[in-house]
Amino acid sequence: MNTAVVNVQLDPVDAALEVGLKDLWYPVCPSSFVKESPISLRRLGYKIALWRDQAGQVHALEDHCPHRGAPLSLGVILGDRIACPYHGVEVRRDGTVMRVPGSPGCKLEGSRPTRSFHTAESNGAIFLYNASNPALDEAPPLRLPEQLTSPEWSSFLCYTEWAGDYRYVIDNVMDPMHGAYLHKQSHTMSEGDMTADFQIRDLPEGFIFEKKGQRDVNFDWTEWMDTGIHVMRLEIPYPKTGGPGGNFTIIGSYTPITNRAAGVFHWRCRKVDGWQRDTWRFLYKNRLEERHWNVLEQDRLAVENMEPDANKREHLYQHDMGIVRLRRHLRNLATKQLDKQG
């Protein structure tokens, strides 16, 4: 019997989004992941080796020795370079081969065949710039929201990994209405209408998707912004038992690990200073953090148990305007990226 080979042509726009858009910053892991020895992570369609030099600066290279492809992450740190464990080839942080011990002076020395990544470290996380140009000498500055940069704010990083496409995590956050249902037993999300009309409000660096006529009651709105990094912001009203500082703000950013795994970063923030900062941080670690993890676990179970093709079999309605808007915008960005690549 003859059998035919069927080649499935992937949508190039979807393929570009699956591994993360180029020329953007992404959080890739908590700072605590990178200690004395190199580590290897899969992120953004790459296998990446990360290490710290003697000054504590984080460096990142594709975890692939240009000689034979052995993992650089198993090698020896030599300051701003790393020596491959297989044959000792030394690769500098910018991807330049500095030394080939087994064949000094060979053409590999002085070449720059290894992809490097610009790094930044802030708010307990390590960020990589996903450049379209692998030889980019300087990345644009990492611009984070004021909740993560202003001394008037205090925050905690919550990091986890979910078994699913990172875009489903984005959809979950761009869906304020699920708070009144999935999280209705939460100490902060048990109030408000179970029905709502929504609107979209454009902002200079993104947009807000919000319930009409309801504010500071539940999970009532989500903001998406592009500052050279894609982040999402929302607020959860806090009861007085939650301590000082007004509404509880969450800043989120989500990174593809594979098409079946996502790095989920949430910074939990409040605008507090002085004794109020100390009070809130104490309350958070001793009372509130566990409750917030319980809420996040509800989201995880819902998202992880969706089928991979769930978004191909949807019947959307008015509550999903924000998801539709953001999906369309991301596809437009991916299309422009592909056009630029020619």
TrEMBL record:
The keyword Metal-binding applies. Keywords: 2Fe-2S, Iron, Iron-sulfur, Metal-binding, Oxidoreductase. It comes from the Bacteria. Residues 25-128 form the Rieske domain. Pfam families: Rieske, VanA_C. PANTHER family: 3-KETOSTEROID-9-ALPHA-MONOOXYGENASE, OXYGENASE COMPONENT, IRON-SULFUR DOMAIN CONTAINING PROTEIN. This is Rieske domain-containing protein.
